Amino acid sequence: MFAYDFMQNAFAAAGIVAVLAGVVGYFMVLRGQTFAGHALSHVGFTGATGAVLVGLSPLAGMMGMTVAAGVAMGMLGERLAHRDVAIGIVLSLSLGFGLLFLHFYTAFATQATALLFGNVLAVDAATVWTLLAVGILCLGALGVIMRPLLFASLQPELAEARGVPVRGFGMIFLAVVALATAACAQIVGVLLVFTLMVGPAAAALRVTGSVGRGLLLAAALALAEAWVGIAVAYVTDWPSSFWITALSGAAYLLAVAAVRG
Amino acid sequence: MMDAPGTPAVALRDVTLRLGGRPVLDAVTLAIGACEFVGVLGPNGAGKTTLMRTILGLVQPERGTVQVLGRAAARGNPAVGYMPQSRVALPTTRLTGQQMVAATVRGERLGLPSAGHATRAEVDRVLGLVDARALARRPMAEMSGGERQRVLLAQALVGRPRLLLLDEPLISLDPHHQHDVIALVRHVQLSLGITVLFSAHELNPLLGVLDRVLYLGGGRAALGTVDEVITGPVLSRLYGAEIDVVRLHGRIFVMAGRQEVAHCSHHAGASDDVRV
Questions:
Q1: CB-CB neighbors (< 8 A) of A163 in chain B
Q2: Transmembrane residues, as ranges (chain A) (predicted)?
C-alpha cells in the first residue's frame, strides 16, 4: 500500500495533521472552546469555495478565512467564544454562503464532497509540504505561549492579576486553532474536524490527570486513529473519513467506560 | 522581606471608583495594616470584587491613589495573592490538585509548562501550608467543595505573597466546610504573618477571627472593629436606609425593616459583584 505516491502523501499529511490536531484540541477542550473550533471549520468552507470561485487554491482560501474569523472571535472576547447561539448562526450562515459560491461555480459536486467530508487520498505532495509548514508554525507558536495559556485556561482571573495578557494569548490561540482546523479539514473535511481535534483530546483529558501525559496521549490517539483509519479504508474501500470518525468515537467511549469502570 | 513597621498593606487615599458608570467608592480614604485579618462585607454590588481588582491593579481608580505594601498598585505584583470567586469549572477533566497548582507557579512566563524540581517543590510547599498534600494526586473533579477551596487557596499562596485577597471563599459551602475554610485561612494568616482581605456575604461565620471589618455600601466604606462598624447608625449611613443591628446569643443580625439584610440580598439573584 505504500508503493503508491498517493498513499505516501495520505499517511504523511494525516500524520502531520493528527499530531497538530491532538495538541491544539487538548487546549480547546480544556478551555471549553470546542464549538468555536467547529464554527471556524464552517467559516473555512466559505473561504474554500469562495477561493475556488475566483480561481485561488481552496486551502489558501480556507486558511485566510478561518484565521480572520478566529482573530475576530478572539477580539470580541472570551464571552463570544462561549455563546452558542451567535456561533451557531455564524456557522450556518457560512455554510449557506459556501453553498451559494458552489452554485455559481456550477455543479462541482466532487469539490463539495471533498471539502465537507475530506479526501485524504487526493492530497498531493505540495499540500503535504504546506501542511508541514503550517504544523511547525502552529506547534511552534503554541510552544512559546503554552505555559501562560495553560495558566489562563485554568485560572483566567488569577492569570490576569499576575500580568498574563489573557485576551492576547486567547487571540493567538484562536488563530492557531483556525490554522489547525483548516489543516484538519484537508484530511477529514470541514464537517468532521471534531473527530480529530476534539475526540482524542477529550479522551485523553478523561484518562490522565497530568497535562504533559494528556498532550502526548491526545497526539498519539489522533495519530493512531488517522493512520489506522486510512489503512482500513485502503483494505475495505470504504471512505477513510468514516473509519477515522468510527475509531475516534470508539476511543472516546472506551475512555469514558475505563474511567467509570 | 519584612515591611517597615507602620507601612500599611493597603492604603486608599481619596479613591473614587466607578464600574460601568456607577460609583462604587466615592472619595474613600482608609488604611489596612500589616498582618490584619479584615472581613470585607456589604450588599451585592457594593464593590467588594471591584475593590480587590483595584488593589490588584486590574481596575484603575477614577481619582485618588491606591498603595499596596508601600508601592502604587500594579498588575502582576507577586506580593499579592488572589483567590477569585470560584465558578463552575472543569467538570469533565481529571486534572489533579498538583497539576492545578503547578500551572500557577510562574505561569506568566513564556515557554512550555514546567515540571521541574523547583516547580514541584513550590507546589508541595503551598499544598503543605493548607494541609492538602493528600489532594495532590486527586482529580479536581472528584473533590468536595471544601477540598477544592483548599487547592485554590494553595494557588493563591504560590510565590509567597504578603497580602492575600480572598473573594467570597465561602460561597456555596455548607456551614461545616465554611468553618473549616475560615479556620484554615486564619491559621495560614497567623503562621505566615500576612494580611488577609476576606470578602463574604455573612458576618457571623467570621466573627471569631476578624481583626477588623471593612463594610462597603452606597459608595462609602467603614473600617473598624466589629463593635465600631456593625452598628445601626454606621450601617444606616452605608445602606442609605434605616438599619437595625440585633445581637442574639453571640450572633449579629443586620435588619432593614423586618428582613435580614444579608439574607435577602443573597437570594436576590441579580448581582453586579458576581462576574460570570
A1: 75-76, 108
A2: 12-30, 50-73, 85-108, 128-152, 214-235, 241-259
- How many domains does chain B contain in total? 2
Domain residues for the domain of B114 are 91-160
- B residues 114-173 near A, CB within 8 Å? 114-115, 137, 139, 155-156
**Cβ count near B216 (within 10 Å):** 25
Query: How close, in Å, is residue B142 to chain A by CA atoms?
Result: 11
Q: How far apart are CA A174 and CA B69, in angstroms?
A: 38
In angstroms, rounded to a whole number, what is the distance separating the alpha carbons of residues A225 and A114?
19
Same domain, yes or no, for B197 and B234? yes
Q: What are the tens digits of pLDDT across the range A233-249?
A: 999 999 999 999 999 99
ipTM: 0.88
A158 touches chain B (CB under 8 A): yes
Superfamily for domain range A5-192: ABC transporter involved in vitamin B12 uptake, BtuC (1.10.3470.10)
B108 to A206: CB separation less than 8 angstroms, yes or no: no
Q: Could you tell me if residue B104 is inside a domain?
A: yes
Asked if A160 lies within 8 A of B58 by C-beta distance, the reply is yes
Clarify whether residues B127 and B156 are in a common domain.
yes
The answer to whether A179 and A138 are in contact (CB under 8 A) is: yes
* pTM for this predicted structure: 0.90
Asked if B113 lies within 8 A of A162 by C-beta distance, the reply is no
**Letter for the amino acid at B264?**
C
Q: What is the pLDDT of residues A83-92, one digit of tens each?
A: 677 777 878 8
